[in-house]
Amino acid sequence: MKKFSRNHFFTIMFALFVIPGFILVISPGNSQAKSARVLRFASYFPTAAPQSKLLEKFCSDINKESNGKIKIEFFGGGSLLKATKVADGVAQGIADIGFSHVEYTRGRFPITEMLDLPLGFPSAWVGTHVANSFYKHFKPKEWNKYHILWLNTCPPNVIILAKKPVYKMSDLKGLTIRGPGRVGDVLKRLGATPKPVPMNEIYEAMARGVVDGSMTPIETLRSFRLAEVSKYVTNCWQIGNVYTFYVVMNKKVWDRLSPSEKKIFNKVADQYKEKAAQVWNKVDLEGLKFGKKHHIKFIDLSSAEASRWIKTVKPVRDNYIKEMEAKGYSKTKLDSMLSYIRKQIKSWTEKQAQKGIRSVTGPTSIRIK
After folding, report:
1. Distance (Å, rounded) from C-alpha 105 to C-alpha 143?
2. What pTM, to 2 d.p., does this model score?
3. CA-CA distance, 43 to 320, in Å (whole number)?
4. What does the alpha-carbon distance between residue 236 and residue 301 come to, in Å, rounded to a whole number?
């Protein structure tokens, strides 16, 4: 038998180990995996909620648009950051992207909190577009640590009641209604006693009579099953606040993105402004359907009664202006911002009617038949 020379030995070793390793290193798949940018997205919403599914789809769309070069790991249900910790967590780099709303950190985004005043938002669709227009127009410095991808609002808050119907303001006297923050301020002006019950405790609180109702959107009839412990809903969208939600990226992380990566994020985020508006509008419609299934009676305010409620809650807006003035903000500037929001509400309501998008709340031009 012919003996292997030393050269033969090294040739075989090279073929068995070096060449495969070299091929593995230079293969396109491995190169792409090594160069992929991984970002973390923190949300407190339950992962099964339609809103969470929307955010997860955003992550997958970014991955698709970047041909796999950007991967976003989604942490839902508060698994990475709780609702009250999202703003700090993104600013500190615990998460690269985050989703929450401004009332969870009241005072941190004071200008944007103006959107949560009782201004008569007719729907989540209108609220979402107004919020994005507001930010684009004024660019409040309070967001300097972040890059805003988009804003959205929930549907307007209404009054959901366990046992007693509310047709007029005087019917609220003696009732304890769930309503934290500015919602509580509104309820107090209307004659009710506000109680800041956490969302996940509302069902039990209403079932046990700890509270007589909740001032939350109609979508909570289904999402928090409030239809099971309620009999009436007073549709008071004319004064119902909204909550302003944000999807933001850490500013330093944004600055490190390449121009092409920023272009991808801007393109996809721009699409999701409309998608978010549609999803948050849709969940209210699902809440209405669920409420009707449970034989909830829906009550609309008369025109005269609505005007009375609007006039009664005006001090909530006035007090906000006074608080901001005391912090050094210009009253003239604040008034101009409020005027801008009102004009935008009118404009976007007209656009919603033109597009034929139906909502549970709002004027007849956009209300579901």
Report:
1. 13
2. 0.88
3. 28
4. 6
Closest among 111, 160, 181 to 140, alpha carbons compared: 111
Q: Which pLDDT tens digit goes with each residue over 86-145?
A: 999 999 999 999 999 998 898 999 999 999 999 999 999 999 999 999 999 999 999 999
Q: Which fold has domain 28-105+128-153+244-282?
A: D-Maltodextrin-Binding Protein; domain 2 (3.40.190)
Distance between CA 133 and CA 348 in Å, rounded? 10
Instruction: Give the pLDDT score at 8.
Output: 54
CA distance 105 to 88: 9
Nearest to 86 by CA among 71, 103, 72, 70: 103
Q: Tell whether the torsion through CA atoms of 75, 79, 83 and 85 is positive or negative.
A: negative
Among 183, 186, 233, which Cα is nearest to 206's? 233
Where are the domains positioned within the chain? 28-105+128-153+244-282, 158-242+283-355
Quote the pLDDT of residue 6: 53
- Cα distance between residue 287 and residue 263, in whole Å: 37
